[in-house]
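Regression report. Comparing outputs from two consecutive submissions.

Submission 1:
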Amino acid sequence: MHNGLNGQKSRMVEVFRTSVATIEIAEFLLEKLQREFPCCEINFDLEDCDNILRVATMSNSLDPMPIIRLVEECNVDIQALVDEVPQKENKPGT
């Protein structure tokens, strides 16, 4: 489930792990988040084991704290996931 940016590509995406377990809670939060952040594309992936919330924007930055506060006010656990780039191993002789 998601709300879009009229098919435009997003520049900045924040990904969160949540405790959202039902479509009803996801729809409730989606409505609140979209009202608060109307310029963002927001969706839940409840099929993922981490019940992912994605928030994308065309701006160059996105502060995750207001999103986290809003979700926590609804008694839902949320944690921002950090982008991890795998480090290339340096092998001797290369």
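Submission 2:
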Amino acid sequence: MWPVGESDRALLILDMTADNVSGPSAVPGAAAIVRFVQGELRYFRERGRPVVFAATAPDLADPPAILTELTPRSDERVLFKAAPSAFFDTDLGEVLKAQRVRRLTLVGLETHTSVLLSAADAVARGLQVVVPEPCVCARNADDHRFALRQIRDVWPLWPNSPLAGAVGDPDETGRLRRHDGPNGSG
């Protein structure tokens, strides 16, 4: 557990494992987002904000390796999940609550599964969600765009959404410029 920090923000890095980024089962475009995920990681580390890595591990006897370029530090949490959402059947919600996290930035793979479902669970817990587009991708561009639309355009309209009426925060949105990312969006 981290000491309670001065910031109410945390970073959740999803499924950025060696197998997902390179090799025969790699997500197309995953290698292209690594540098952007590294940028987010550096940003949160420099400010002493909590960082959590979550990786899907159907077999805990042989958990996947986090990508070398993103190696977790000893004070950063690594959790293994059996379902797409990093909140399902883990203590992530309690850990973030104990840290007084109110805004969660999600990056990694894949936009329409782990990112979308973890973001939905975060919103359901009253957290504001930030998903920088250059830091996520999916195997299918249509699925990628659908997930980003849900997160950015649909959820803020929910009556009890923590995003309802929220104004963009330059600290969160100004550091990344949109680009023609791995899924051809931006």
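Expected: both submissions complete independently.
Actual: both completed, but the second showed a warning that disappeared on reload.
Relevant detail on submission 2: The chain has one domain: 9-173.
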